[in-house]
Amino acid sequence: MSPDPTPASHDRLSHRSPGPRPVLARVLVVDDEPTARATADAMLRGSGNEVRMATTAHDGLIMAEAWRPDVVLLDVMMPGTDGFELCRQLRAEPANADLRVVLLTALDGPASRLRGFEAGADEFITKPMNRAEMLARISGAARVNRYRTMRDHQLRLATLPEPATEDALIDLSTVEHDTALDRCLATMALAVQPIVELDGDDAPHVHAHEVLMRPNDPAFPNPMAVLHTAARLDRLADVGRAVRARVAALLEHGHLTGTVFVNVTSADLADDALYHDDPLAPHACRIVFEITEHESLERVPDLSRRLQALRDRGYRFAVDDLGSGYSSLNNMALIEPDYAKLDRELVADVEASPTRATIVHTIIDLCTALGIALIGEGVETAGERDTLIDLGCRVHQGYFYARPAPHPHDRRTAAA
Length: 416
Description:
Layout: E1 26-30, H1 34-45, E2 50-54, H2 57-67, E3 71-75, H3 83-92, E4 100-105, H4 110-119, E5 123-126, H5 131-158, H6 166-187, E6 189-198, E7 204-214, H7 223-232, H8 236-252, E8 259-264, H9 266-269, E9 287-291, H10 303-313, E10 316-322, H11 326-335, E11 339-342, H12 344-347, H13 354-370, E12 373-377, H14 382-391, E13 395-397
Parallel strand pairs: 1-2, 1-3, 3-4, 4-5, 7-8, 8-9, 9-10, 10-11, 11-12, 12-13
Antiparallel strand pairs: 6-7, 6-13
């Protein structure tokens, strides 16, 4: 018999504490010249920005969609698809409407600038790069993008009739947001992304699938908007129940095969519904609960007993962001997971960073000793794939293999 968990907690989802030096902007640099990339990286990363690199327009377009940077810094003169054309392709995606694009060019004439503006560029930086100018333009572009994002989200969620009193504003806001969240949960879709394993010949095959929530309501532009609103309303458990019901329906209709990863938060683990007649219970032996928001696990009463109750039913567990800090290692000891996912920041450009490669190798040895299957998450390039294989990590997930899709992929997955 499994234990009878204590009543569900109504604590709100805690947010991660910012580090001593917050990231100023997420900057994607697209440039085929190694020296120019190294110069931009030194200027930007040294000033507190988070930086990723792409060497071709194709890789840049994929990384922009996967990573969602604040600013894209494009070199104009690239072989094949140049910076002007890549700028047009970025602007063709509705999701990039407010993305700030800065063109890096040695062409300083008015014709070149006009061509850039026509392609959709916001700023120009002339080569050779001046550090002060670079940081000022990147900082300004990122600030404008974030203000626009905040404004748009606030307009979606906070457009309410004017009340007579402050108390009425609070009550009406809660009712409006509750109604919007109900509508979102009723209409949301689920996307599925494969987790692949590479054989001895490096041919990938599907190891498992991760199910991802995708809102269809214009008031919620992305899953984080759903989670933030639910947390503010103390309704994270409702989101978890809705997702699990949708996953169970996919399983029952044969739309998912094999092992399935489902994200859960501390609110889900504290929810009695997870332990009593949950729709996923008949499929427990196929489910891996991927535990997110590690810092809030201390809010779950009797966590060890609850985890064991789920294990007794056949569920397995995964932790994400392994290597991101003390909390991820501490929770790995607490949860004793079956799977762990490498922190995306360790995977990004791992082939170009001996330090990251050493850290990843150490984590692989640790997981091997503990009997934990390690997944390289966020693999976006061939270089990242090859380096992870060389280091000993052969289970991967990321845009390099496949993007989230409404239905599972074939059993054999071909990397583009």
